[in-house]
Each structure stands twice: as structure tokens, then as C-alpha cells.
């Protein structure tokens, strides 16, 4: 689609920091547009690493192959919000990287994230910075139990969260996070009683043009996203409100790339901001089959400053269900044959070498006339995955 | 999706003979299913070659890297029906290759192709083997003018065809094909007056399970497929008949893989067989966005003997338009920005290094509520491609 910036006789190379499934699907979109990809990761033959000759499997820690990766790439994006911002600064000295180091610093810390959005009136649960153990007691006294203690950085899929149901649990939680080898700074957040969890993907390019994806419902089990219903089976007015909140978040931080905004729908129909991820998101995988432009393609378009594509659905409904490992051992399921037989279902397997219980190994997306039909198809297919 | 046959601790590797756009899109499907790919081609950085570390750019002629490619692959398929069948025999000694060498031999020769299908009653234009120049005169005398002389092998996109409008042209045509360095054996075929050209993709796996795609209309300009309308805007009864003919062709030759069957719709509503290609086909690119399972994914499933996926459309209508080079020089268009802005259009650029006038450089697929809407979107997007 574009010539290389640095080697004009060659094709543009999109650099991917990280080689997991998000990088893989972003790579797929870039390749469809006629680009090439470079991948840096710690380890060979990652899901995205197998897709290119420009694979840098020695990673970016302790210099590693970072310099070679930077040199091979024209513009760089990422799949993992936990990249040390110093690494991004090193990259930014030589190459455009999106989302920017500034965006990443802001978003990586859940406390600064919330502060930034609260300051512009985005509705969310009450929260506070936690510096001492007493702060936890004070928060519980002021806002009630249960409440949630979260690490400010590096938490995902529930890791780094602790729900505190009574003050007698505070000592243990404090020890867990703050008295180990590496203290993990915390924030506290009111527990939200929600009826549904929602998510909206938003893409924004360097010109400030945005594309807002449908509001979907995400269903979690044990803190891991398990299934996604698109569009969310809630009133259109609520879907629109969720989309507005999501858009406002991305515009507030002037983010470039694609962002996943997670929200709660409370039992009195309030929509509260929960978290933002500055990268393609599990809740947006359905967009590959169900929307005119996938979240991955809009991520690519955004970082190269091309016009964004339509985020609208091209089918009435879709359902994505994650394929989580059910044993350790080989990353290849024993059988997917029965899943392949289900009408209207697309199977995605990420090609990870090793399975673990609960590890995201792939996903299934079903399209259909209604959310119920799509869900039934996807569930049926999931039953056909044998580990 | 599958472990390697020969290296069970590793992931399955699908080997692709040829690295052009058909191999690229087949590779995309294989990667989505968690497989890896190996590509052999004459030249580096082909559209599929950039997608793998297992790239063998020295090709298969004069041994080249054929042995290394075979060794790296678990099962092999192809994108080009003109592979010398001896190469396929060499491969078949060590690896499963689909379609089989026997299928390829039969299909590569347009005369044996037609004989085989005529023998089971598939309707087609009258045709005859041409051994001497007199045979051409005799054919014209018996079946009338104009008629078409075609090379039995290696013709595609109109290359190797000559329409003979009167007997005075026969000398020149004979000289062109038979009196050069390498005589090109011929067949003669009655000229068909058609109202539309149709195509149907059929996938068939090693178990004999089949998937028959919608009947589409293909629109040619100067012998090159330019656009495809899905489904074909003809009566459903005629669509079904075309699908039946296509299915019968593939079952007759017991083909394994995916096959593109081209047909004519005559002005008295007859459907006549024209040609079969034993590989993914230009007329099937729309299936990526518009069908539950693309032709490429079903090709992969067929050759590994997995159950085939649904060939049904998940949107009401689609239109594909080829992006053909409009100048020589860089394979990257000057601009695609305006094409990217059109709602409902997916842009595919193959990543070929060099453009030539008329060369297939990519395609656009639009989906829509009707064929007319899809066509309008695709046409609009094509106008936005600037060479």
C-alpha cells in the first residue's frame, strides 16, 4: 500500500512490538494491504513471528535485537501495553511509534488513567490512590465493602486485582502486593454492581479522524473474557452512550491507534468507565468477520495515517468465544474437526507452541441473523474443540 | 490446527508451489488456522514469500530448492495449473500433493479436459482435436465461422486463444502456434454467443465431501476477469444448474482441493461448460468477505482432509473488481487513499514488486444489500486507486 519511508524502492514494513495473537492479527491486516511486517519478541516462532523473515526473537530486553528491529521497520506499533516506556522512548528517537510513549505512560497506570478521564467528567466508580495500608482501611470506611484493590500497573485478565470483602482481609492484601520483592503500587476502587459488562473499540488516526465500533457485551469467567455478543443486547440509547464515552476517552488522551474501552452497565442503567487498553482488544476480534473494517486493519490504517475504514457491521449479529487451553502440553488441540462442521463459524488458532489451562489459544467467531443464533453457533463449535 | 506429520513436536506446514497472490491468500487462511507455510517460487519476496521464514526463492526448475521445500512441508498444494507434472511426480514420491498429479495432467490439457466432461454429458460448445492445418479448415466448414483455436496447454487470461473469423485467417493462426520454435498443440471450439459468463467454485476434500459456492457472473475486458457479481443476477434455477454442472465436473475427475469452473449462459438460457482451473480462482476472491468460509480456507481444509466449511454467503451481495496495473514501474500505487474511504469495501494489494499494464496487482471487494449497491461501492473505490 505504501513505499518504505527509509528505503523508498522497497515496500513499507510495519514493525510489531510483541509477537502474540494481537500482533498476528494485526500482521494479517497489514499483509492484506500489501505491506510487510517485522516482529520482535522474546522467543522464536511466536504467532506473528512465523509470518515474516524479519523476525527478531531475541527481544528488546537488555538491548537484544531492538536496534535491528527498529532499523528494519518503517512505523512501529505494539500489542502489549506493558512495554517499558523507556523502550518506547528509544524507539521514538528513530521511528514513529503509535500509540505514542506519552499515551502509553498515561494509560499504563490505572490511577492516572482514571484521573485523566474523571477530570473531563467521564462517569466511573469512585477511586483513590493507595499509599499506605491505612489508606485501604479509610477507603473501606468511606465507600463501603466490598471494594477492589488493583495494582496501578501490569494487571490484566484479573491478575493484580483483589476484592476486599471486609477489613480483616486488608492485611493479607497489603502483604500480597506491597511486601514482596517488588512492591506493586495500588489504587482502590468501589465495587460496581453491574448487570452487564460492555466494551467499545475506537480507532483514531494521526489526523484525529475516529472510527467507533459497535457496543458489545463481554462475558467474563474468572476475570478472563470468555465471550462477546455484538451488538450488545441492550437498548440502542445505551449502546450510543457507551460509544460516546469510549470516543471521549480516546479523544481526551489524543490516542493514535486502536483502543478497547471497557465499561459497566449498572442496574440503574448507568454506564461507568472501567478500563482502557491502548491496543487491539479481545472484545474486538469479532470485527474481522462481522465489520467492514476489522479493528486490526483500522489499527494499521491509524498508525500510517490512512483514512479509517467503516466500523459498521456487515452482518446483523456476531458472537466470539475464546478458545482457552484445557490442559498443558502441546498448543495444538487434539481435534477441531467437529468445530469445523458448524455453519457460520470461523475458527482462529493462534499457533502458540504450548497450551496451559486458561491460556488464550484461539477463538471462534460466529455470525448470524440474531445474537442468539450467533451465540448458539459459536457455543456449538466450542463444544467441538477437543483438547 | 494440526501437528506436523513428519515432525510431530512441531506445527503443520502447508507447502505452497508458487508465491503469487493465490498462494498468499491461501497462506492467510492456513495461518488463521494455526498452521505454518512454506513457499517455493522463482524469486525472493513474492506476495506469499514474504509471509514465511520457510521461503525457497530459487524455485523448482533444474532441481533448485525443490528438495528442501519438500522436506520442509507436510502437505503441498499449488496455485498455478501449469506446473510440469513431472515436478508433481517428484513431490508425490515423498509428500501428499493436492490436486494430484493425475488430476493436473488431465486438467492441464484443455482437450482431455473437455473430452472427459463431454463423456459424462456435461454440455459444452462443440470442439475437436487439431493435428493438421487442414483440421482447422474442416472444423470451420463443419461448424461455421467464427470459431476459436486454443492451445491445449498453458493458455490463460486469453493468452493462447485465437478467434478465426474466416478461412483466410487460418494460415496465420497455424503459423503463430505451430511453426515457431515450440509448436503449441491446438484444439478448435465453436464460438459461443453468450449473454453472460458465469463461474462456480467447488471444494472437494479427500473424503469426497464437497462444498459448492454461489454462481457468480464474471465480466471480462480483453480476456481478463475484471469484475465479479455475487450472486449472479440470473434466475435461481439457472444458478442451480450452473452449480450442478460445476459439481459434476469436480466429482467426475475426483478432484481434491478447490476448483474454478467457468461457464457461458447462452441467449437461449443454456449453460455451457467453458474451462476448469484446479486451484483458487479470481472469480472466488469475493468469498473472503462474503462467505462463511473463503475458497482459500476450503482449499486448505480440503487438502488436509478436514471437514469443509459452509460456502454460503453471509451477506446479501458482493462485487469484486480487479486492480490492474495502469503503468509499469513500482508495484505500489501512487495513492489508495480515496479507495480506503468508501464504505463497505475491502482493499487487497498483493505486494508485487513491479507493476505492468494489465497486471493483477490487487482487488477490491464490496459487500452490500444488493449486487447493484456492491458494484457501485467497488467501482467508486476503484476510481480512488491512482497509479
Describe this entry's structure for a reader.
The structure is a homodimer of 387-residue chains. Chain A is α+β, with helices and mostly antiparallel strands and 387 residues long. Chain A has three domains: 13-98, 3-Layer(aba) Sandwich (Rossmann fold); 126-190, 2-Layer Sandwich (Dna Ligase, domain 1); 194-383, D-amino Acid Aminotransferase, Chain A, domain 1 (2-Layer Sandwich). In chain A, 29% of the residues lie in helices and 28% in strands. The first copy, chain A, contains twelve helices and 20 strands. In chain A, the strands form four sheets. In chain A, strands 10, 11, 12, 13, 14, 15, 16, 18 and 20 form a nine-stranded antiparallel β-sheet that branches. In chain A, strand 10 and strand 11 (210-212) form a beta hairpin. In chain A, helix 1 (21-32) crosses helix 10 and helix 3 packs antiparallel against helix 4. The longest helix of chain A has 17 residues, at 236-252. Chain A is globular. Chains A and B meet through helix 1 and strand 18 of A and helix 1 and strand 18 of B.
Amino acid at each position: 500500500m505504501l513505499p518504505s519511508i527509509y528505503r523508498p524502492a522497497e515496500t513499507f514494513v510495519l514493525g510489531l512490538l510483541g509477537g502474540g495473537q494481537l500482533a498476528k492479527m494485526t500482521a494479517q491486516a497489514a499483509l492484506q494491504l500489501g505491506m510487510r511486517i517485522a516482529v520482535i519478541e522474546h522467543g522464536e516462532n511466536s504467532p506473528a513471528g512465523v509470518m515474516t523473515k524479519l523476525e527478531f526473537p531475541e527481544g528488546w530486553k537488555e538491548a537484544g535485537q531492538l536496534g535491528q528491529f527498529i532499523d528494519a521497520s518503517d512505523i512501529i506499533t505494539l500489542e502489549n501495553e506493558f512495554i517499558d516506556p523507556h523502550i518506547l522512548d528509544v524507539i521514538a528517537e528513530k521511528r514513529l511509534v503509535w500509540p505514542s510513549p506519552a499515551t502509553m505512560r498515561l494509560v499504563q497506570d490505572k490511577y492516572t488513567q482514571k484521573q485523566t478521564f474523571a477530570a473531563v467528567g467521564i462517569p466511573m466508580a469512585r477511586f483513590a490512590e493507595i499509599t499506605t495500608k491505612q489508606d485501604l482501611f479509610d477507603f473501606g470506611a468511606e465507600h463501603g465493602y466490598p471494594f477492589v484493590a488493583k495494582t496501578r500497573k501490569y494487571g490484566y485478565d484479573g491478575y493484580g486485582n483483589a476484592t476486599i470483602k471486609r477489613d480483616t482481609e486488608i492485611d493479607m492484601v497489603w502483604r500480597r502486593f506491597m511486601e514482596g520483592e517488588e512492591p506493586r503500587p495500588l489504587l482502590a476502587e468501589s465495587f460496581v454492581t453491574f448487570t452487564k459488562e460492555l466494551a467499545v473499540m475506537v480507532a483514531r488516526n494521526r489526523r484525529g479522524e475516529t472510527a467507533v465500533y459497535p457496543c458489545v457485551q463481554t462475558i467474563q469467567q474468572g476475570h478472563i473474557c470468555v465471550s462477546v455478543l455484538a451488538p450488545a443486547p441492550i437498548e440502542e440509547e445505551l449502546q450510543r452512550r457507551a460509544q460516546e464515552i469510549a470516543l471521549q476517552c480516546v479523544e481526551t488522551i489524543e490516542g493514535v491507534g486502536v483502543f478497547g474501552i471497557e465499561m459497566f452497565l449498572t442496574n440503574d442503567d448507568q454506564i461507568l468507565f472501567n478500563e482502557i487498553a491502548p491496543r487491539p482488544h479481545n472484545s474486538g476480534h469479532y470485527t474481522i468477520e462481522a465489520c467492514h473494517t476489522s479493528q486490526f486493519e483500522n489499527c494499521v490504517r491509524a498508525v500510517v495515517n490512512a483514512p479509517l475504514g467503516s466500523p459498521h457491521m456487515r452482518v446483523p449479529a456476531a458472537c466470539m468465544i475464546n478458545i482457552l487451553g484445557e490442559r498443558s502440553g502441546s498448543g495444538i488441540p487434539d481435534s477441531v474437526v467437529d468445530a469445523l462442521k458448524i455453519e457460520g463459524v470461523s475458527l482462529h488458532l493462534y499457533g502458540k507452541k504450548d497450551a496451559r489451562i486458561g491460556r488464550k489459544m484461539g477463538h471462534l467467531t460466529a455470525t448470524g441473523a440474531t445474537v442468539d443464533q450467533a451465540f448458539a453457533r459459536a457455543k456449538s463449535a466450542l463444544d467441538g474443540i477437543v483438547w
